[in-house]
Design a protein that fits this description.
homodimer, 393 residues, alpha/beta, 7-stranded parallel sheet, two-stranded antiparallel sheet, 17 helices, 9 strands, globular
Chain lengths: 393, 393
Amino acid sequence: MEENGFRPKGFPELKNDTFLRAAWGEETDYTPVWCMRQAGRYLPEFRETRAAQDFFSTCRSPEACCELTLQVRSPQKREGFMPSACPVKQPVPYSLQPLRRFPLDAAIIFSDILVVPQALGMEVTMVPGKGPSFPEPLREERDLERLRDPAVVASELDYVFQAITLTRQRLAGRVPLIGFAGAPWTLMTYMVEGGGSSTMAQAKRWLYQRPQASHQLLRILTDALVPYLVGQVAAGAQALQLFESHAGHLGPQLFTKFALPYICDVAKRVKAGLQKAGLAPVPMIIFAKDGHFALEELAQAGYEVVGLDWTVAPKKARERVGKMVTLQGNLDPCALYASKEEIGRLVQQMLDDFGPQRYIANLGHGLYPDMDPEHVGAFVDAVHKHSRLLHQN
Amino acid sequence: MEENGFRPKGFPELKNDTFLRAAWGEETDYTPVWCMRQAGRYLPEFRETRAAQDFFSTCRSPEACCELTLQVRSPQKREGFMPSACPVKQPVPYSLQPLRRFPLDAAIIFSDILVVPQALGMEVTMVPGKGPSFPEPLREERDLERLRDPAVVASELDYVFQAITLTRQRLAGRVPLIGFAGAPWTLMTYMVEGGGSSTMAQAKRWLYQRPQASHQLLRILTDALVPYLVGQVAAGAQALQLFESHAGHLGPQLFTKFALPYICDVAKRVKAGLQKAGLAPVPMIIFAKDGHFALEELAQAGYEVVGLDWTVAPKKARERVGKMVTLQGNLDPCALYASKEEIGRLVQQMLDDFGPQRYIANLGHGLYPDMDPEHVGAFVDAVHKHSRLLHQN
């Protein structure tokens, strides 16, 4: 990492470590909160710009990624948003205003999980209104030969490291910066399906018909992810989240065979990689969407935090995972359609159920594009307000 | 029901009641098996015919529905399939050959859950390759005024009753015939979204923003479903399955408020309706896909059978629901991509885990169009073969 000039030194001192403390299982004064997809990507103004037309070019621009990371949903700053400009250079940084308005306790770098398949040599485009598309998905076992050596992936993704370093500098220590990646199985689904799918039948066909080739592909992805995630920390990421977004398509049996071992391997090897590189450990979060059936296993997979979607009741989740892991989640994103009063009530219930410690508030999935930013603010405020009361009792 | 001339009398004697016995919780000699979406609808030859182009016209033709119900996936009879013809009139009924080849223990009437919104006055078309589409979905609360009186739905759907009666006659007592409907919440999602959706955000927005109007809509649907399901039994259906296909979009809280009460109400009122009409009770199956969080509640909802998707481990499901309900499911449909040997192994594991009684084998979801019919046969055979061994022990 040394040659890219973005070593994690000389960063501004962290002023709000509540998220990190909760992630490590330390006591906090209130419940920290952030939102999956809080970055500008899902803002209407983002989708109207050329960034949406050329999504992966935006991902390759550290300036744009920095801006989009800081530009969380602002109710009053819709006009004048230009991802190609970098207004953070202004004396009163425009892009930090939303973070002032919505006092989120963490930022997550703007990027996409599919930069890893891209770095492995696959073409991926983002089709506006449709989603990602691979013109040449993996169809046959021999297609694996098309993939680049996973060892080159981290250097291919230097632009992500640059974005992380720039963003951490510009965050000025307000809150910690989270890096992320897609888990091997979820990346495999995109690479085989060639895009989204309601059944993941093609990717699952691989698991049933070509288990050895599937394991080979999952190993390649794991080998790519480990240096990529270590590199994110080297560049300045202060926590890491692994998204197993398509866990729900696997039942307990397939998950145990084709997802969990790689999830465990990523955690183990990233931790070893950080140590080897002389980097301080960072908390790691595993979010396996619809992976309700594997909660116990995920809590033992080497991650400090287990993310939950909204289909798991908080108390039951805590009973199942025990006390040695922090839980993150899990408000139904659609709850943000409710009135602010109802959001407050739902947040209160959620916080009461999760309890005041070893907990990070979040949604159970990402924000949707049509959500009112003011309601995001109501969510954040409700978490802070009610959790301070909870922590006092 | 009397005026339509399809009273359930004079039907041939049932020769194989294994499915019904298992559904009622009675002892069986082997484990009965059927497949969701086993009817011809998902056959390649079906999709190539005009039936796919004019899906709901097919639903309105009792002859075509009968043919498609009996025409389960045959590996050797792909040619010459004509849904408009009715080859069952031939001396050796062509359409019964597949049932001979694949000794399924139940048939399910070919129809669609969206005939109910249609009967309520909504326009629905089936777009080939895309799915159902409502040109004018419910957008505002006042759109509920567009819906017809639910009391007229059953008479509007007389064509389904005719299809059931015809099919039961032509089944000649081989196996019982299952009727079905979509549950209120699932029907509501289509009516509000106007088609499929990965998030159901519009329908969930109703739940959060218009809870009273949502309950009004769900009550209308319940009021339509009760006489429709009673009518199916009057016409000859020997069991009923309610599909809550979109349960997973609701967390425990929303499910408890907006899905479960109507699921319970349907069961209670259908049972009362059957009694009032002097009809013998039939076993009822509730299948709430991705409803893992509500298994205990579903087992108490007034249904004899609880269907499971493949994300729930059989032993855990049995622990959670207790002994007073039959379980149905739950092989991952994609397991049919595996080799026949592997299918046999997976079936054996599933049967061992569910145990020999109070169990109906099925997939955890419907068959996919690209599945090899021979592998469906391997699934059915494996269930019968292994369960006979299990029942002997």
